[in-house]
Amino acid sequence: MGKEIERKFLVSTIPPDIIDQFQALLVHQGYISSDPAEQQVRVRSKGVDFFLTVKGKGQLERDEVEIKLSAEQFDALWPLTEGRRIEKKRYEIPYQEHTIELDLFEGALSGLVVAEVEFASVEESQTLLLPDWFGKEVTEDARYTNSQMASSQKIPEQQ
After folding, report:
1. Structural domain 2-152, CATH architecture
2. Which of 31, 91, 95, 144 is catalytic?
3. Where are the alpha helices (DSSP H) in 4-101?
4. Are the CB atoms for 151 and 43 separated by under 8 Å?
5. Residue 31 appears among annotated catalytic residues
């Protein structure tokens, strides 16, 4: 079983060169199971690729298994996510030896912009110098998990 180690940040101002320089992928993501106290099961279309992902409990570090699906398998599972879906445009931006995943949410979550960075270890996650356009860190704020936002269909209010 793999591990996901990821930090998440709000973004209020997107550097203009990102939108011009990088191609966005359209992501449709739906949750079959989205209880934050349990494992989460989601299906995702990302461009022309399709995935089933199971994520364990946790925020910064958690277990993760991802399996590639065919379009037919995705289409069979998608109806099970009714009422627990998000869509977003994702920009994958090289940054040092990492990739920043910049997500511009659409639909009910339109206006929310989040940047995520994955790491090989928890230690590495604490040493990366972050871009100055990253805003408040929300890694440990469960309201900003995609599964929570897919269920609530609301942008969390800032505290």
Report:
1. Beta Barrel (2.40)
2. 31
3. 16-21, 71-77
4. no
5. yes
